[in-house]
Write a structure and sequence with these properties.
This protein is mainly alpha-helical. The chain has four helices and no strands.
């Protein structure tokens, strides 16, 4: 029970403290800093998925011999394709992209117009 508590508390505190840094920022970050931080976060996520998910999945399917990699490979690419399809089908998921603001503005305009009549 104690291990579970600390296993949940430590990541929670790390995430909360990291997110709390937003409240101490006085001005917007520069473009280079934003891209660097996004790249760092992407690298951390890739490393976490490889060491915590893909390698254990390959180890669990060792009985397949030469094709022990295939379940992890297929699952990884299924996830990638699923997220790409989701992003394509649900265009509102990336509301901050400048190319999507026109579509969102038009949707809000149509909603307001429909509400008045």
């Amino acid at each position: 029970m104690t291990e579970t508590f600390w296993g949940i508390l430590i990541p929670f505190l790390g995430t909360s403290l990291g997110a709390a840094c937003v409240f101490f920022m006085r001005r917007a970050l520069g473009d280079l800093v934003q891209r660097s931080l996004a790249g760092f976060a992407a690298g951390v996520m890739v490393a976490a998925s490889v060491w915590s998910l893909l390698i254990p999945a390959i180890e669990q399917s060792e009985k397949l011999g030469r094709f022990a990699f295939f379940p992890a490979f297929a699952g990884f690419w299924f996830g990638v394709l699923f997220l790409l399809a989701l992003d394509h089908l649900l265009f509102l998921i990336n509301i901050s992209e400048p190319t999507r603001l026109l579509s969102i503005s038009y949707a809000v305009f149509c909603f307001k117009k429909q509400k008045k009549t």
